[in-house]
Specification:
The protein is of the alpha+beta class. It contains 9 helices and 33 strands. The strands form 7 sheets. Strands 21, 24, 26, 28, 29, 31 and 33 form a 7-stranded antiparallel sheet that branches. A 6-stranded mixed sheet has the order 4-5-6-7-9-8. A hairpin with a 2-residue loop joins strand 8 and strand 9. Helix 5 runs parallel beside helix 6. It starts with 9 loop residues before the first helix and ends in an 8-residue tail after the last strand.
């Protein structure tokens, strides 16, 4: 729940709203008539032409549904609605009753319940107009409390040439009439009915009339609503009520009558939204003669700062996977562990679930685990691994997901990398040769269809001074230093399409050894050779390689070894990233071996 708005005292909000109405009336008196303007577009500006609003008095207001009548644990729903209304910033907000749980004559309890409500309401930044529901006025004691602390039980006002009538369906609890109420005259009573009739007669020329009440008394015979409806006559009007905690739109005499659902009140939810059993609030927009009503379910309207770079920077550092694994060729099996750290620097609790996928070469314990951390806490665990020293490929994978305050934050698949990333040497220095014509005129419909011409490409001679006939001109080997972790062949080969090229680098080893290596392909086609022999695990035969990583071993001989990469691409945007494990810095890397006879 976001809380980014300045809290405004209720009294100040009421005063501000009164000022707004007063200023609006004065402006109508002293301001000359001004027509709305449309934007001044330049010639041939792209636009789908539809009417712009010509209403200078266009406005919107929010309607909040019942909070009480069950739902005692649902204040977060109400709070979220308040936050979203602040983000939408209508001119004002009206609540159709049932603000407190009520049903009491205990003034101490009554005071505590109203205090609780105002604490939650106080975050609202627009003027707030409540009308009473059956939970707010359940008896004469509560009626008197409302009159003393909130004010009138029914009222009317105009705003931008619209009339708002706020009714009290609980007027029969008036202390002077509670015992003698004449139910034959309905729920509203003679005084309230006369008040409504007078207001309607006084404001016959408003562009729209809004009637708001708690109980939808038009659904009940002899409720007194028939008199109010008769007084409304043929004018343009819309009616809103609450009480039933279930959204229903009725049509009477070609007018819309809404029974609004709850905004944090109790009900049995249903997944089918057409059933109307879901929390919501409403935004009503008045534009000229049009009245548009949006039913909004809390949870999908956010402030501009909902997603910040600062949050994502912290998110990137939540999880640390640190391998401590040594491939020991002197033993039949190699073992180690993966240290997993969850450091919660966010504002809500985090829960991490990890599942390791089965692999016949690897033993993993535990293969499923869970971590939790409250804000400011750190949680750690260790996972043990073992595998045959000479048969540890393919590497195992694991899936992990993180819940943030009960909502999914991350859901990813990762590879258990037996070598610490710091011990992987990224090869940036290369001799490049290309581009050459790939031998096809268009990319195959199935990118996994490897062209025969690519399969038949021979390795170039070891003479780095030789000249070749390339795609468009004579070419020679060129020394290349990559500024990034990937070798960008797009730049090196001039964005050549339907082409291939070579990259060669040299590795010097103090002895014959097998080293772990990996390549990240950014091309459609690829092969990798060591000392002229293709490394089968570096590419999958018949497999489209773009955005694909391969993990394999390089059987280095003592002295200098020649590493050659053949890469082909259809679209000309291609690269690769080559890494070799060198934890002890025993290997040397170069584009030109200084003593090739070693």
């Amino acid at each position: 729940m976001f809380r980014t708005y300045k809290q405004i005292r209720r009294s100040r909000k009421s005063a501000n709203f009164a000022k707004i109405i007063t200023v609006s009336i004065l402006c109508l008196v002293i301001t000359p008539i001004i027509t709305a303007q449309t934007p001044n577009f330049p010639e041939r500006m792209p636009i789908v032409e539809r009417p712009f609003s010509d209403d200078l008095d266009k406005f919107s207001f929010a309607i909040i549904g019942d909070k009480t009548g069950g739902g005692l644990d649902k204040w977060p729903v109400f709070d979220r609605s308040i936050d979203e209304i602040n983000t939408l910033k209508p001119d004002f907000a009206i609540m159709v009753g049932d603000l407190i749980q009520g049903d009491t004559r205990d003034l101490e309890q009554l005071t505590a319940e109203w205090k609780e409500f105002w604490q939650h309401e106080s975050d609202l930044i627009v003027p707030f107009l409540p009308l009473p529901g059956n939970h707010d006025i359940t008896n004469p004691v509560m009626y008197e409390y409302w009159k003393e602390h909130l004010g009138r039980t029914y009222s009317a006002f105009t705003y931008k040439n619209c009339l708002f009538i706020m009714l009290n369906t609980e007027e029969w609890h008036h202390p002077a009439q509670a015992e003698t109420w004449d139910w034959d005259k309905g729920w509203f009573g003679d005084e309230q009915t006369k008040y409504v009739e007078d207001q309607l007669a006084k404001h016959q020329d408003v562009r729209h009339t809004f009637v708001l009440l708690h109980r939808p008394l038009w659904l009940q015979e002899h409720s007194g609503w028939e008199k109010i409806e008769a007084a409304l006559g043929e004018r343009a009007y819309t009616v809103f009520a609450g009480h039933y905690h279930n959204l229903t739109l009725h049509t009477r005499n070609d007018h819309r009558y809404f029974v609004l659902g709850a905004t944090g009140g109790g009900f049995t939810p249903q997944e089918v939204r057409e059933y109307g059993a879901f929390d919501h609030y409403s935004i009503v927009t008045v534009d000229g003669e049009d009245v548009n009503i949006a039913i909004i379910e809390p949870g999908n309207i956010h402030p501009a700062d909902i997603s910040t770079a600062a949050f994502k920077n912290r998110l990137a550092n939540l999880l640390t996977f640190k391998p401590q694994f040594n491939l020991n060729r002197d033993q039949q099996y190699s073992s180690g562990n993966l240290e997993i750290t969850l450091e919660n620097t966010l504002e809500k609790w985090l829960k991490l679930e990890i599942v390791f996928n089965s692999n016949e070469n690897w033993q993993i314990s535990p293969n499923q685990l869970s971590l939790q951390a409250k804000p400011g806490q750190t949680a750690k665990t260790i996972v043990a691994f073992s595998a045959p020293s000479n048969d540890f490929l393919p590497l195992p994978t694991y899936n992990y997901s993180a819940l943030y305050g009960g909502e999914q934050l991350l859901n990813r698949r990762n590879l258990f990398h037996p070598i610490d990333r710091e011990d992987m040497r990224i090869l940036k220095d290369w001799m490049l040769l290309g581009p050459f014509a790939l031998g096809v005129t268009e990319a195959p419909a199935d990118r996994n269809n490897i062209p025969q011409s690519f399969l038949e490409i021979p390795l170039p001679e070891s003479n780095l001074d030789k000249t070749y006939h390339g795609l468009t001109a004579e070419i020679t080997w060129q020394e290349h230093r990559s500024e990034s972790e990937r070798v960008n062949l797009n730049d090196a080969f001039g964005n050549a399409e339907l082409a291939y090229g070579f990259g060669t680098s040299y590795i010097k080893s103090p002895d014959a050894r097998r080293v772990f290596a990996q390549i990240g392909w950014g091309s459609n086609l690829g092969k990798l050779y060591l000392n002229g022999v293709e490394i089968s695990g570096a590419a999958i035969p018949g497999k489209h390689l773009f955005s694909w990583w391969a993990h394999f071993e390089l059987p280095l001989k003592q002295g200098w070894n020649t590493l050659t990469i053949l890469s082909g691409d259809y679209n000309g945007w291609w690269d690769y990233r080559m890494e070799v494990a060198d934890a002890t810095n025993a290997l040397q890397f170069s584009t030109k071996p200084t003593d090739p006879q070693d």
